[in-house]
Specification:
The structure is a homotetramer.
Chain A (H helix, E strand, L loop, with lengths): L21 H18 L6 H8 L3 H7 L3 H13 L11 H18 L1 H13 L3 H28 L8 H19 L5 H11 L7
Helix pairs in contact in A: 1-2, 1-4, 4-6, 5-6, 5-7, 5-8, 5-9, 6-7, 7-8, 8-9
Chain A binds a DNA duplex through helix 2 and helix 3.
DNA sequence: ATTTAATCGAGACGGTACGTCGAGTCTTGTC
DNA sequence: GACAAGACTCGACGTACCGTCTCGATTAAAT
């Protein structure tokens, strides 16, 4: 889409009758991302984004509804190619890989910072919450379900409440990231998976 | 004018050298609580609190650093007597009671709404995050530990990583409350405990 | 809401790239003038002006530095067409006309009230004092000089310290207006001129 | 009055049933004076005076009605012994001495700064204006009248409108001090007197 | 010697206005 | 018709003083 339009290749156009400026769109998303990482969510202001992106406020308001709307866009942009779908033929291995990836994403990437900010804002604004769930959470849970689907396809897992299982595996990860702030190491996520695959809790 | 005031329990003093007005303090905390429940976190403004509490802005700034500071105070006030420490002599029963109580608190009480708002704000502000953890999370985890302590005192639980166990039990609850928004029913928390006490996940 | 506005002459614009809103400017100046006349200088607050003019505070701060700045603007607006330059061919007649006009201006016009307020504020603030002198006092003294210039052009007044003369004529007027508060009647100003043109003071 | 009370000699008392603390009174007047000279009239705040004088705000409000009230007190204290009443037996000499003294007082003394501030405030507040006239202006005009009284007693001055004369002599001085800001040198005041005693203005 | 009452310092109180920041809307001239 | 620019109204911010109000300590006259 970027290269499709002549006005977006090379020099930046200052308005034309052919639709929105792709360069402006990208500048806004990057500016929002940068501001979030540098100054936190409070630093993500429409005016700040406009100034940093060299874009008029009106252009932002024309295409986005709010700053969270921008962050959702930035997230879609950034998160789309991060995740893989492991398929090793072993449920445990797949789950371990999945949780490691999730933990890395949430704690060590710029997109993860966006997710945390949006998760925070979701606590304040039901509209954000709804979109956050339908856009991010659902996608993630779909990824969470893959290992179980693969296992089922292999004939394992006669019966299992997959949704509960995902809560049990992903829940502690989000809990540590958002609530306790403790690190989520590979050792930790591996332990979660090991435990889930039924090592005895009580001796 | 004195009796017209919401916070007017007894005679209201208007400042003296012995420190703050207790009635003003309570009026502020209640106003903040009310605004949060009625209009969400964005509706919790210092001016709004001052107006609703019939208090001068300066009085708020004198005693609190920010609106989150007020909410922490309100939380301390409200949450202190909510929780019980179940001790039935059975680990499973204690854990089930504990998780039910936690879920109810987070989803069905005004103080729970404050917690969710603070958890949200913690994602935006490291200072809030730190205080949230030291003030709320630590207390909660202490309550989470009680069932295990009782069990250990009874000689059960030869060996167990209690901290991991808490993550596994509380994590999914917070995850559903803050992230997926799905209800956390007694049946759900009971299932978490049952699973944790090692019903087989894989047939 | 648009038509409800006092300053709504024609269609009111709400900002554009070509600079300030003339209607807002006029509304501010009039509001400041009105507040000064009605409630005195203490009643001239930025918030009061903004409210009365139906203008945002920020708009005021964008174009004016202080309330005295506004009053200087209002004065320029109002005082510009008040004064005439008498030229009767007779020094005494010219001076009498000039002093009468000055006295009327200072004591009986809204712009005169502004001058008195600014003269007052000039005693408190050197910046105001400087501007007051360069903007108002200089202009007035120029008007004061006219009769003498005309006389000189006619060949009268072989030698005279004009500046001293102006002090002697205008000084008592300002002195009565600002200090003693006594009325400055035509009879009084005429007497000043008569005396100045050398009737004997001592018998 | 200062030495009259035992509690005011030496250490400062902290309240008793015999009336006000003289030391507090003096500290307030001095603090007000200092603040005026150092930071201008805007710097003369009740809180500032209280802090600088080491006095409670209530003590100020108990004995004074406003900050101008304090300045009037300070003025009375300071101005009382400044002026002399010249009596050389010569009207011109007396007037010259009087005007020189007036000019010095207004431009070169702390009390003169107070007078200028009060004159300024008198333009904003009719109550201040009234008090300023009855307390300061009247006293000054009385001093202005002395040379003429002495001359009349000597049999000079068969007929003269003394009030007009004072306006003509003092007016230009106040005019320069308050309005034009030009210096008022002995040469200048001497010229005023010389001219008044009827040197020809027009050749 | 104790009580009593006026004044002191301190400082918290409800307010008003300050000057600033950002939100979201509107308009204009350019491309 | 979208763009950069930027003026507009509006709401909230955090601060400074205002004038009012207790309070406990201080103090000397009256008991």
């Amino acid at each position: 889409m970027t290269t499709a339009h002549p006005a977006d290749t090379g020099r930046r156009h200052h308005g034309n009758r052919h639709g929105r400026s792709e360069s402006a769109r990208i500048a806004v998303l990057e500016a929002a991302d940068d501001l979030l990482v540098e100054h936190g969510f409070a630093g993500v202001t429409i005016e700040g984004i406009a100034a940093k992106a060299g874009v008029a406020k009106q252009t932002i308001y024309r295409w986005w509804e709010s700053r969270t709307d921008i962050l959702f866009d930035a997230l879609t942009q950034d998160a789309s190619e991060f995740f893989t779908v492991p398929d090793t033929g072993d449920l445990g291995a797949d789950l371990r890989a999945r949780l490691r990836e999730l933990a890395t994403f949430l704690t060590a990437t710029d997109a993860g910072a966006v997710v945390r900010a949006l998760a925070g804002q979701a606590q304040h604004d039901p509209v954000v919450a709804t979109r956050f769930r339908s856009e991010f959470v659902m996608t993630q849970r779909d990824l969470d379900r893959q290992p179980f689907r693969h296992a089922a396809a292999r004939g394992e897992l006669a019966s299992l409440d997959t949704e509960l299982a995902i809560d049990q595996l992903a829940g502690p990860v989000y809990y540590r990231v958002l609530i306790t702030g403790q690190p989520v190491t590979p050792a930790y996520t591996d332990a979660l998976v090991d435990y889930f695959l039924c090592w005895p809790a009580v001796s």
